[in-house]
Amino acid sequence: MKKILISSFDMEVGGVERSLISMLNNFDYDQFDVDLFLYSQSGDFLELLPGDVKLLDEINEYKTVRQSIKAIFKQGLWFLGFARLLAKIRTLFYGNEENGYMQTQLIWQYCLPLFPSRAKEYDIAISYLWPHHYVAKKVNAKVKVAWIHTDYSAIATDIEADLSIWKEFDYIVSISSDCSKTFVEKYPMLQDKLLVVENITAPDFITKMSMEKLDDDMFVKDDFNLLSVGRLCHPKAIDKAIKALHIVHQNGFKNIKWFVIGDGPDRKMLEQLISQYNLTKSFILLGKINNPYPYMKVCDLYVQPSRYEGKAVAVTEAKILSKPILITNYPTAKSQITSGTDGVICGNSIEDLAESIIELHQNKKLQNSLSQYCSIQDYGNSNELKKLYSMINPDI
Fold first, then answer.
1. Dmax (CA) of the chain
2. How far is 387 from 376, CA to CA, in rounded Å?
3. Of 134, 263, 287, 384, which is the most buried if we count CB atoms within 10 A?
């Protein structure tokens, strides 16, 4: 029985976490003994972990990477507190105070020497979420794999510091060919380590979950209801969505409403923007919802307005539920949608987004065509896991 370790931060509601749950629910547990190490044992998706997975005990030092410096000092973790202060000071010194990626990178760089190592040896260790320092430096494994879920060309980090971590891995798994392409543009020297393993989808599970009855009838029949699912953060571009809906309403389409499932650091800013554009009854932040699929099933159009993505999990889920889909032309968009066939890709500007929403609203024939195409596709892809297994057993 081969021993596998998978690490991530937590099981809060999000695309990366949903893709991890899908992968774990499709694993071959007859061949592999899987340990899961979460830096924080929190999140509503914890209850979805399969019983075959062994959830390792939390280690408090790792949990601190997303805690405030004040909270760390209150716990008496003085050295970690000072390491975090140093990371913050250096971020400010270099004028990168708005760059969360750079600060996160520095936090791991300065705190890692103070974090404990994992004693057990594994056949393969998978770091499922960036930063990848834990598996790179604190885990003993015959094969090490780092997973990438986003467009790295859009992330500002210290490349030299990055390479000191990437070099520790035997494989770097990307979730799409376009995701690989943008990664290689930034790190051409790592091309030979790259392997594409698409997010594992679970069509039967998603379809079953979509049958759950909604508590209220918020999607009014006479309205044209848009839905987006994702964290309320800069990459997801919900701020652009609000401004686009304002333009849509200015063009006389007041019956178009936009619902967003998710939470995150931009919520307060987005609420202010919604109020500023007088959209409190038309642009609705639903917050964190464990099961987004009933909402996805009944919406009229699924929209992904992102600035950048690796391969948006929610877009594939919308395909499984045969929804018309609109996404912006972020760098990896064409790896997920063939425009005019299984969805529509529009320009990145707010005006482009608004115009495409109006066009789709008025073109019922196109809506039906997109839905019909998706309804006859097979989106199951559990065979993708064979690529992962082959890293351990080349004969599989």
1. 64
2. 26
3. 134
Domains and CATH numbers, the chain: 2-59+116-200+382-392 (3.40.50.2000), 203-375 (3.40.50.2000)
* Structure tokens given for 14: 């999000």
Q: Which residue in 8, 325, 18 sits closest to 202, CA to CA?
A: 18
For 76-96, how does the pLDDT look when each residue is reduced to its tens digit (9 = 90+)? 999 999 999 999 888 887 665
The burial of 192, by beta-carbon neighbours within 10 Å (0-12 exposed, 13-18 middle, 19 or more buried), is given as exposed
First to last CA, the chain: 14
Is residue 240 within 8 A of residue 274, CB to CB? The reply is no
Query: DSSP 3-state assignment of 161?
Result: helix
User: Rounded to two decimals, what is the model's pTM?
Assistant: 0.83
pLDDT for 200-252, tens place per residue? 888 988 999 999 888 767 777 789 999 999 999 999 999 999 999 999 999 99
DSSP of 87-112: HHHHHHHTT-TT-HHHHHHHHHHHHG
Residue with tokens 């890293």: 391
